[in-house]
Amino acid sequence: MKKSQYAVETKNLSIGWGGVNVLNQLNFELYSGEKLAIVGPSGSGKSTILKILAGLILPTKGEFSIFGEKQTYLRLDQNNPPDVRLVFQNPALLGSLTIEENVGFLLKRNKNISKKLIHEIVNGCLAEVGLFNVNNKLPNELSGGMQKRVSFARALIRDQTLNTMTKPLLLFDEPTAGLDPIASSRIEDLINKTNEKANGSSIVVSHVLSTIERTSDKVLMLYGGKFRWSGSIDEFKKSNDPYVFQFRNGKLDGPMQPKDI
Ligand code: ADP
Ligand code: MG
To answer: What one-character DSSP code corresponds to residue 38?
Structure first.
C-alpha cells in the first residue's frame, strides 16, 4: 500500500451525460485529515462528485486517486477497495432488516467476527449517535431523525476486511437539507463527532451555511462544471467573489443563472 499525503487527488475529472459535461476537468486535492465542503446550486454536480469518489459511477474522462491509489473500477469490482463511507441525503436503510442488521451489515460478511462481537460493535456505534434499545426495531418504526442517526452509526463501522492502514474518507451528501436550525445543529455536531471518532477526512456537500461553516476547514464552489472559487472557511465568510457573494446572500443577480444549469 502506497502512503499518500492525499486522501483524494483528481486530475481533469470529467463526466457527462448526453453530450452535457456535468463535471468539466476538475482538479482538487484533499489532504489526509482535512475537512472540505463542496458547495454550489442544485444540479451543479455535487452528488455526482461524491458518487464518483464512492465508486458508484466512473468518470468519463480524467483520473482520480484515493489514498494514493488510482481508481479505475467501480467499488464492487475492486479487490482491495479504499475505506470510503458515503452518508446519503435520505438515510437509505434497508427496510426489511433490523437496525442492528443495518448498522452491522458490513461486518456480517467477515466470517471471523462472531455474532456477539458484531452486537457489541453495533451497540457502541449506536451509543455514539445517542441511540439505545433500537437494535431490534425496523427502520420504519423510527422517526426520520433517528433513521438519520442510524445512517451515521453505520458510517462509524469499520469494515475489517478493508485495508486498515488508511484513515477513512467520509462523504456526507446534503446532511441537513430540509431540517430546522436546531435539528441541523445536532446533525452538524454528529458530523464532527463521526469524523473525530473515525479519525478520517471528510467532504460535506451542502448549501446550508451553518453546515458549511461548522463542519469544514475549506470550501470549493462548483458551478457550470467547474470550480469557481476555493478558499478557507474564513475566506468564504468574508469573500466578495461574485460566486461566493451570490451564493451566501441568495442573490438573483450574479454569475449563476438558471439558464446556465
Ligand atoms: P447536485 O447534487 O449538485 O444537485 P447532481 O450531481 O445530482 O447535482 O446532478 C448534476 C447534473 O447531472 C444534473 O443536471 C443531473 O440531472 C445530471 N445527472 C446526474 N445523474 C445523472 C444520470 N445518471 N444520468 C443523466 N444525468 C444525470
Ligand atoms: Mg445532490
So the answer is: E
